[in-house]
Amino acid sequence: MTSTVVALGLCLGLGLSLIAAWMRGRRPRLERRILPYVRPHMSAERDRDDLIATPFPTVERLLAPVIKDGIRAVEKWGSPAHEIRSRLQRAGSSLSVEQYRAEQVVWGVGGLAGGVLGSLVLAATRGSSPVALVVLTLAVAVAGAAARDYVLGRAVTKREARMVAELPTVAELLALSVSAGEGALGALERVSQTTRGVLADEMRATLSEARTGTPLSGALESLADRSGVPALRRFADGIATAVDRGTPLAEVSRAQAQDVRADGRRVLMEEGGKREIAMMVPVVFLILPVTVVFAVFPGLAALQLGT
After folding, report:
1. If phi over 0 gives left and psi between -120 and 50 gives alpha, with beta otherwise, what is residue 197?
2. pLDDT tens-digit profile of 7-25?
3. How far apart are CA 157 and CA 235, in angstroms?
4. pLDDT per residue as tens digits for the range 271-287
5. Are 253 and 175 in contact (CB under 8 A)?
6. Distance in Å from the first CA to the final CA of the chain
7. CB 103 within 8 A of CB 148
């Protein structure tokens, strides 16, 4: 049995399983049929399963049963839903938890397809062990799902770094607006309108929450909870305390800006120290051995000629 026959058999089995899952998914369930008559106000929850969670709606509808099974498996073995929701908010993503899970399943399926292709190539060229190929395929599939989580973590880190970089400028502008006679709410609104960036977007969301009736201190606490940045949390707590207790807001903002800049210098010095240590690796393991070889080789050559 050649590798071509094995590949054709796998494709045929996969196609038949997809057709069976598609036919089973199209079969109407009893609770779905009677739900509109028993609980009409639950129509939104009834239609939640019809939401598109991936950029490929046609393929998603065809593979909906398989994707839902994969989402349940990822929910069982992956991170909790509240943690995913918090990370999506910190990354500034508009995805829901269900959409993120669906993307994880898609990435895992892509890794599975790549693992199957690589296993077929290894089986045809090197005759590798079937057990090793199965382990390799599963490992690549898990790596595909984990890669989506890594991308989300990188997005969170980059967005938080941008917020920390924008915070001193925003704090200085806020102090300048308060010194010019603006109130706390007016100063925040003016700064959010005159600046652009991630922190300005978060401030506009905070102002929108404050306009709906939430106290400004509560809206600032929500901002700190959404961001997850310690410097921004201290900034929001300082402004909320100044608003509630009547502390001079301009001085508080300037002090917060100075603290953020001091933290930035400290982080930069720590990063420089780490890079300096990392630079010792090529020096010790690459440059120094080559230097020793060039210094010792002429002497060894002279000794060999002398003998």
Report:
1. left
2. 667 777 777 777 776 666 6
3. 19
4. 888 888 888 888 888 88
5. yes
6. 63
7. yes
